[in-house]
Specification:
alpha/beta; globular; binds flavin mononucleotide; 16 strands
């Protein structure tokens, strides 16, 4: 059988397994369409909130010596309602809408805005490490995770993904609570809380002091998380964190992921990276005799 890189993340079917991660290229539909034409199986929007958020003052992003970035943009976004208005009824790009909020009612309100829009899935940001009362602060609270996931699942029939990250409590508790509350899939992971200090000014570089580390340095951590989740649960997983080559993507499949997301790698390679990775995965499958991504998913757990 000819190999195919089409994949399914539970009920979410994608022609290609490499997606754009949230927050990397904003919410422009023109950009999303270009990424889709360049081989992205789906695009995830910047996380959207009930009202527009301004974000933090500069500096908000810092390039780390040896690779990677630390960012604290502060989840700046125009608000869910403003973005929903821009989606055309006949748009054909698979869009995953990322939502961020503090309480179940925030998510309920935002879902209503997208009721008549073509949305492939929702991704709940339970893991941003640098904004108070949302993201990781929610992900670290099992009661809130349960309430939010249950509410979202009762409000929409569109598949819902929980994006988890490394907070102060075990992310595996967040994963378990989300699964017990009916989540359809997990994205792992978000950026990892980090900081940088300017030795001349003798102060933190980012205006928010702390930010999130992304890119190559976090790949082994993200891979470990995907492997741990897939070892403990039968749930579709999207791997995210430091992926920039087809070999990276294949590692995540072998650890148990059914798809991957690219963030920081896009800054270095721009849109050509999607097709490069798709081609590399296909050639690897031909060489190893795998027909589907599903056949590869989790193979590293045999040993
Ligand atoms: C500038 C920037 C903004 C981000 N904004 C968001 C966001 O709004 N929501 C979210 O869930 N993740 C956000 N992330 C995290 C990424 O989606 C991704 O999880 C993380 O960068 C790890 O992937 P990478 O190493 O491929 O970049 C952002 C990352 C960066 C670098």
């Amino acid at each position: 059988m000819e190999p195919s890189i089409a994949t399914s993340i539970g009920k979410i079917q994608l022609d290609k397994p490499v997606m754009l991660a949230s927050g990397i290229l904003g919410i422009s539909l023109d950009v999303f369409s270009r990424l889709h034409r360049s081989g992205a199986g789906a695009v995830v929007t910047k996380s959207l909130s009930t009202a527009p958020w301004e974000g933090y003052p500069n500096p908000t992003i810092f390039s780390v010596k040896g690779g990677g970035w630390i960012n604290a943009v502060g989840l700046s976004n125009p608000g869910a309602a403003n973005f929903a208005k821009t989606i055309e009824p006949n748009q054909n790009v698979p869009i995953v809408v990322s939502l961020v909020g503090s309480v179940p009612e925030d998510f309920e309100t935002m879902l209503k805005e997208f009721e008549n829009c073509k949305v492939k899935a929702y991704e709940l940001n339970l893991s941003c490490p640098h904004v108070a009362k949302v993201g990781l602060e929610v992900g670290d609270d099992p009661g809130l995770v349960k309430a939010i996931v249950s509410t979202v699942k009762n409000t929409t029939n569109v598949p819902v993904i929980a994006k988890v990250g490394l907070g102060t409590s075990s992310y595996l508790n967040t994963v378990k609570t989300a699964i017990d509350s009916g989540i359809d899939a997990i994205t792992a992971i978000n950026t990892v809380r980090a900081m940088a200090i300017d030795v001349n000014l003798q102060r933190p570089i980012l205006s928010n002091k702390f930010g999130g580390l992304s890119g190559t340095p976090i790949k082994p951590i993200a891979l470990r998380c995907v492997y741990e989740i897939s070892s403990q649960h039968d749930i579709p997983i999207i791997g995210c964190g430091g992926i920039s080559t087809w070999e990276d993507a294949v590692e995540f499949f072998l650890a148990g992921a059914s798809a991957v997301q690219l963030g920081s790698a896009i800054g270095d390679n721009w849109v050509g990276v999607f097709d490069q990775i798709n081609q590399g995965i296909l050639q690897y499958m031909e060489k190893k005799g795998h027909s589907t991504i599903r056949e590869m998913a989790g193979l590293a757990k045999r040993s």
